[in-house]
Amino acid sequence: MTDALILKDVRKIYGDREAVKGINFSVKEGEIFGLIGPNGAGKTTTLRMICTLLQVTDGSITVCGHDVMKEADEVRKIISYLPEDSGAYKDLTGRQYIRFMAAFFADGEKFQQMVDKGIEMSNLGDRIDSKVSTYSKGMMRRLLIARAMMPEPRLAIMDEITSGLDVMNAYEIREIVRGIAKEGVTVLISSHNMFEVESLCNRVAMINHGDIVECGTPAELKEKYNANNLEEVFVKAVRK
Ligand SMILES: Nc1ncnc2c1ncn2[C@@H]1O[C@H](COP(=O)(O)OP(=O)(O)OP(=O)(O)O)[C@@H](O)[C@H]1O
């Protein structure tokens, strides 16, 4: 398997604060990879650098062979990013929102294909014609994931996709993410919920205070630390 994403010695400095301290990890094509760590660890900063939304202070990031600094336009064509706090225009219906967003990417037949795919993926049934302002958090998240997947990215990046959702909705979103990966899309998620990541991700990198403290499959890490779950691994790894 080739690497869809490679980070080499990546640093981010905000003013006098070093938020990301020279991190290294790579994500293989078709993997679901989790970047996990507590609040303020540097997850969002890392995702935003990968998405070309933040300048990298030092080091390099390559997405499917393209350098995020030197080939930002190429990178933007092959990724999608779903920020944690993203929303949709509340006065539009789900269908209108999907059509509005698809128009940025395509026209003619391709536009219609994109809209059909988005509507199917959102799985909103009749509610696709209700105003977004009437959607539950779970429905909103499904609509946003559908929007993010419409342009068929090679790398889908999602920040805390299940935060604020109840058990059923979070379960459903994880199923959608598994489906996306089955279609061959590489998925990078961030989360502070270590239990959810364990069941969803092929591999994880644990980040704490801007440093990667561990990286591997959940099974490898649990064995290495003789731990029952990733939360225990994390606690043991940061105490090393
Ligand atoms: N624009 C900014 N200016 C200055 N410091 C920032 C800025 N954005 C983030 N930081 C700091 O960088 C560090 C990493 O923040 P980041 O948001 O990347 O963490 P995170 O792991 O995503 O946390 P959370 O789970 O709370 O979203 C924190 O100490 C944060 O306060």
TrEMBL record:
One term of GO molecular function: ATP hydrolysis activity
Keyword Nucleotide-binding: yes
Domain spans labelled ABC transporter: 5-234
Lineage: superkingdom: Archaea
CDD domains per record: ABC_DR_subfamily_A
Keyword Transmembrane: no
Keywords: ATP-binding, Nucleotide-binding
Pfam families: ABC_tran (PF00005)
Protein name (database record): ABC transporter, ATP-binding protein
Organism in which the protein naturally occurs: Methanomethylophilus alvi (strain Mx1201)
Higher taxonomy: Archaea, Methanobacteriati, Thermoplasmatota, Thermoplasmata, Methanomassiliicoccales
